[in-house]
Amino acid sequence: MSDTFFQPVSGFELPRFAGVPSFMRLPHVPPGHPRFPEVEIGLVGVPWDSGTTNRPGPRHGPRQLRDLSTMIRAENGATGIRPFEAARCADLGDVGPNPADLQDSMDRITALYGQLRAAGIRPLTAGGDHLCSLPILRALAADAPLGMVHFDSHTDLFHSYFGGTMYTHGTPFRRAVEEGLLDPKRVVQIGIRGTAYDREDRDFADSVGIRVIPIEEFHARGVADVMQEARAIAGTGRTYVSYDIDFVDPAFAPGTGTPEVGGPNSFEALEVVRALAGLDIVGADMVEVSPPFDPSGNTAFLGVSIMFELLCVMASAGAP
User: Fold this and answer.
1) Which of 95, 215, 225, 283 has CB 3.0 to 4.6 Å from 193, enough for a Cys bridge?
2) φ/ψ of residue 54, rounded to 5
3) Are 308 and 72 in contact (CB under 8 A)?
4) Residue 210: inside a domain, yes or no?
């Protein structure tokens, strides 16, 4: 790719602690920019956590993720993929939420992602709490349901919270199935664990055919075997990838609102994404990074490292 506009700024040209941070030091190309139609993969921030029911903070995630993403370089040291040469990538900016109105915020998110879909841009999102995924899916699955590979310690399949609140970070994928945005038989949830109120979410998964792989099974079988099954479930159709940072053990990622012990380590957190190679990924997200719980930035650095792995898989799939 000879056009240098879509290349990140090198640390050899400008120190990583200098300049205005953008995702992975890519150009800022918001909708309306003259080169917006050329973007193939757009990195987007969704600084919104109105779906959080206990420990807030993910609204600050995209800003910290951007800052820590200045540490990302041009080549994947494990796979050799150079995503910024394989696809035209850019930081598209943030969706401006309405922190006083949950429904308006979701409408704003869906509208922005509808623009991306119309322009043929595949989004890689930094959240935000996990409710962010629902309005994104409303845009990306407007014509047909998607498959999904979901890394998390929670299913996010609950019907409602507090006697009838339907939209929280624990309900997005229940709504997505009900709204026909996800094909449940092409959905796999990996890493589920922790104490529970009841089995309502797991019963729903069983009733519609969602495959849940609890953490005990993940550890017993190993990354390669589990991910082989995950790829088979997603199949060859259009697929979304949703990655909650609390999939990772809090020893490696403490900066999240609902941590659960017993999870994968940081190396396994990268391995599972590399194993997505070959899927038709139409969009992906990294959610629930909460800077107030990890001012060191280590959780955010792991988060953007996972985003880079997602970007590599997405870019290589679109390469000629």
Assistant:
1) 215
2) -135, -80
3) yes
4) yes
Q: How far apart are alpha carbons 90 and 14 in whole angstroms?
A: 18
Q: What's the domain count of the chain?
A: 1
Instruction: Report pLDDT digits (tens) over 240-264.
Output: 999 999 999 999 999 999 999 999 9
CA distances from 44 to 273, 277, 289 (A): 19, 22, 15
What is the extent of the structural domain holding 217?
A: 23-318
Q: What are the phi and psi torsion angles at 25 (to 5°)?
A: 65, 30
- Is 7 a domain residue? no
Amino acid present at 269: A
CATH of residue 250's domain is 3.40.800.10
Round to whole Å and give the CA distance between 310 and 149: 12
Closest of 313, 310, 304 to residue 24, by C-alpha: 304
The rounded distance, in Å, linking the Cα atoms of 158 and 143 is 25
Query: The whole model's pTM is what?
Result: 0.97
Q: Which amino acid is at 70?
A: T
- 9-57 tens-digit pLDDT: 999 999 999 999 999 999 999 999 999 999 999 999 999 999 999 999 9
Write down the pLDDT at residue 3. 77
Q: Is 1 domain-assigned? A: no
Partners of 122 in beta bridges = 41
Question: In whole angstroms, what is the distance from residue 151 CA to residue 226 CA?
Answer: 12
Instruction: Provide φ and ψ at 243, rounded to 5°.
Output: -125, 110
Instruction: Give a yes or no: residue 281 inside a domain.
Output: yes
Q: Does residue 319 register a pLDDT over 60?
A: no
